[in-house]
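To whoever picks this up:

The parser on our side crashed when reading a file containing two proteins. I've narrowed it down to the boundary between the first structure block and the second sequence. Both blocks are reproduced below exactly, byte for byte. First block:
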Amino acid sequence: MRNVTLNNGVEMPILGFGVYQIPPEQTERAVTDALAAGYRLLDTAAAYGNEEAVGRAIKNSGIPREELFVTTKLWVQDAPAQENTGRAFEASLSALGLDHLDLYLMHQPYGDVYGQWRAMEALHREGLVRAIGVANFHPDRLVDLIVNNEITPAVDQIETHPFFQRTADQELMHEHGVQPQSWGGFAEGKNDLFTNPLLSSIGAEHGKSVAQVVLRWLTQRGIVAIPKSVRAERMAENIDIFDFELTDAQMAAIASLDTGNTLFFDHRDPAMVDWLAKRRLDA
């Protein structure tokens, strides 16, 4: 497995396993299969409701903790965020059955953002988290957070797939030492991604599936990917992307698929901001 080195020297696998939208009752089996397939980066979140199942799979895997890279995410917190963030972190850590996290992400750029970040900085200083970062931060919000705080986010996890490629976002992150990570790498199959003629033809040239082409495209750009599946055979296929390389011409051709727009929702849409920012997880 290839790793990327974060801005604080921590190494993170460039390909991992995500559990978004996997029901809790299926998550333990899915993570167990993913670990058996060779994944060592696991990505969950308090908002996903399946941290406990991820924790059981980790505990029962027998894999040494130091070989795993575990990420979870902090949901929107009200002021005083220092106190609330500490409680949310402890709840996630307890659910996962771990004594530390490898990466803790602020899930949304809403609520008491500065208070949340400074509480996360404190968790990092205490050694409870090896790296801290954000998710769904547009460039302006990311730069604002960087210039007004002590620790620069190690990661920004954003929607990134062939139809929304986020090239300018990636360039800005590189400039500031922030590692880009993709969510929705397969666009959830929207725009008929898995039968796209261009991606299919590139896959045929390499003897690979469209999914493998997309994951290779992401990781070849230096973007961390976290594909999700509940099928062991698909997990094995998705991790098998390091024995081929896309040509410059193929990378350029895939670039032509970019629409420049989200396929899901806009984190700057006032109605979406209102809905996300007011949502609270059950205590």
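<<boundary where parser fails>>
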Amino acid sequence: MKDHVKSRICKTFAELEREIKRYIHYYNHYKYQWGLKKMIPVQYRNHLLSAI
């Protein structure tokens, strides 16, 4: 995360918080994970829940 969040451009805590939330949303909804069968975390969670 530290390589992807542009914390140096944030001048306030609110800006930093918004940047972190943006990255978390990107990570959970758009970033494919090799360890999760090449799915994004949200897809993998839904895949596991549907198997129950």
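After patching the parser it read the second block fine. The mean pLDDT is 90. The helical segments are 13-29, 41-50.
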